[in-house]
Specification:
Oxidative stress induced growth inhibitor 1; growth factor activity; three-stranded parallel beta sheet; single chain; OSGIN1/2; binds flavin-adenine dinucleotide; 8 strands; 2 domains; three-stranded antiparallel beta sheet; FAD/NAD(P)-binding domain
Length: 255
Amino acid sequence: MSNWRKDHLGASSSEPLKVIIIGNGPSGICLSYLLSGYTPYVKPDAVHPHPLLQRKLSEAPGVSILDQDLDYLSEGLEGRCQSPVALLFDALLRPDTDFGGNTESVLTWKLQKERAIPHVVLGRNLPGGAWHSIEGSMVTLSQGQWMGLPDLEVKDWMRRKRRGLRNSRATAGDIAHYYRDYVNKKGLGQSFVSGAVVTAVEWGIPEPSGSGAQDPSPLFQARRTVRPGWASPGRPCPSSTMSCRPWRWPSGRAQ
Ligand SMILES: Cc1cc2nc3c(=O)[nH]c(=O)nc-3n(C[C@H](O)[C@H](O)[C@H](O)COP(=O)(O)OP(=O)(O)OC[C@H]3O[C@@H](n4cnc5c(N)ncnc54)[C@H](O)[C@@H]3O)c2cc1C
């Protein structure tokens, strides 16, 4: 594993990673963005249309959302998923989308490298996940805007690429391109390994530490293999094992 990290991540540590993300679709990209140290704060002049959430947000001005009580903030929010943290982030990123509104995100993002958590994102294809398997000319069912990730609006990206939305919809090809570009623009590329398929995740045996004593904390091991056609001189071994330890978000409030 240590050789693998030297080859692909430029890291020289043989320490297990904190996080291995399996799958490089929009979910994996967004998680990598957070783990890279990008930290959400409420814009000083923002007013959230949900009065209760607005009141709670105003109780801790200038404090990062990640340092607040996520259970408290997400209490009472409703939507199409079960995860309170996902509902909260949806409400902060796209405040009134479920009611057909277009209110801007109330979040602003700061890159705070001291918060970064070492991680790797393994994916079968290029960053963008399922969007690379969908016919490029197909138009999205959702509004193009809704496919955006933090701090890079799809409509602004499309404008810069001299592309346009059709009836507020983007093509699957544009969205796949947007996700790939997002990884580069946000400087996340060094954490991504494309063409890597995870074939097993299992408990591993901790390696003895330098002192000769066994480190008691358990390890997860992810076995991965490189897809045919993705190997390169920089990737000599077609398969290898990486490990990480069970981990909680530093605040202990999100996993
Ligand atoms: C035809 C079609 C149209 C759609 N239209 C819309 C739409 O209009 N609006 C909308 O919101 N959603 C739409 N979706 C759904 C959208 O694609 C998903 O919601 C979104 O891509 C989910 O993102 P994700 O990151 O969770 O997973 P995915 O995008 O599925 O990414 C996960 C990636 O992980 C890879 N992977 C899985 N297992 C492994 C492994 N063991 N090792 C390595 N890699 C692995 C997969 O190959 C995949 O590339 C559509 C889907 C399809 C198929």
